[in-house]
Specification:
This protein is mainly beta and 268 residues long. It is 14% helix and 41% strand. The protein has three helices and 17 strands. The strands form three sheets. Strands 5, 6, 7, 8, 10, 11, 12, 13, 14 and 16 form a ten-stranded mixed β-sheet that branches. Strands 3, 4, 9, 15 and 17 form a five-stranded mixed β-sheet that branches. A two-stranded parallel ribbon has the order 1-2. Strand 5 and strand 6 form a beta hairpin.
Length: 268
């Protein structure tokens, strides 16, 4: 009898010990009810998918390797002197992409970025691990042909924005606006004293940029973007007929600026 009782107790002890090794619970470390002692997932994990973080943009304007400065004489790709009085650009469609390529867009993220103004609020994004980050230099087609008066006064596209740049419902916004002075002498021996005006817009001039940058978004984050306005003139002889473009009147110059955008923008 004592032998049978001993065997039964041994079986019970073994069963208890086995169950202890197989403790069930939530084994997902990203869940709010994660159980570090659990050895087997019981399907109870609760993921806090509603948690979001605030994303801001640090817009770092440059003139070549130097920080941007209005009215300062700089030398472009061919050695021609230039000064900038206006330098601004519409940025939009800020989005993060997960490892599967799924797009998580920051809603209504439109920015009118001006040289000299560095910080802009973009909005919120769901906390997650992301594979890449992207945005457009320019404005999507729907917004581009909207009425500026229809946007909230705080929106970059609003006509209430004192710097807003809009041609018409047909042509839309001026994506890139640059004005200043340039040396127009043939041998580039003069000073920057002749006006240049570059206004680049229309749907076909938008650039969609993507940057590979693995990141874990689990708190408020700042994205730093360098934008080199001098690089936009690379390959353009800014004199004579090329001293201005309002896009349609000088499409080659506008397209040259558009094509230079990918080399002018860097994600730090």
């Amino acid at each position: 009898m004592k032998t049978k009782l001993f065997i039964s107790m041994a079986i019970m002890a073994g069963t208890f010990a086995f169950s202890g090794c197989q403790k069930e619970g939530c084994t997902n470390s990203n869940a709010i009810n994660y159980d570090e002692d659990a050895k087997k997932d019981d399907g109870s994990c609760i993921l806090d998918t509603d948690t979001t973080s605030q994303i801001s943009l640090h817009f770092h304007a440059k003139l070549g390797t130097a920080d941007f400065a209005y009215g300062t004489e700089v030398t472009n790709w061919e050695g021609r002197k230039m000064k900038f009085d206006i330098a601004q650009v519409y940025l939009s469609g800020f989005a993060f992409y997960d490892d599967n390529g799924a797009k998580n867009m920051i809603e209504d993220s439109y920015v009118l970025a001006k040289a000299g103004t560095m910080m802009y609020d973009l909005g919120t994004i769901t906390n997650d691990h992301y594979h890449s980050f992207g945005f457009s230099v320019g404005v999507d087609s729907v917004a581009n042909h909207s009425d500026p008066a229809s946007w909230p006064s705080s929106n970059a596209l609003s006509s209430n924005n004192p710097d807003h740049a809009f041609w018409s419902w047909n042509s839309g916004y001026i994506f890139i606006k640059m004005e200043g002075l340039v040396d127009t002498t043939a041998d580039m021996s003069g000073t920057a004293n002749a006006a240049f005006v570059y206004h680049v817009g229309m749907d076909m001039m938008r650039n969609d940029l993507m940057f590979m940058n693995h990141m874990e978004v689990d708190e408020d984050m700042m994205m730093t973007v360098e934008f080199d306005f001098l690089e936009l003139f690379n390959g353009i002889v800014v004199r004579g007929n090329n001293q201005d473009t309002h896009t349609m009147n000088n499409m080659p110059a506008a397209m040259a600026v558009r094509d230079n955008v990918p080399n002018a923008v860097t994600l730090e």
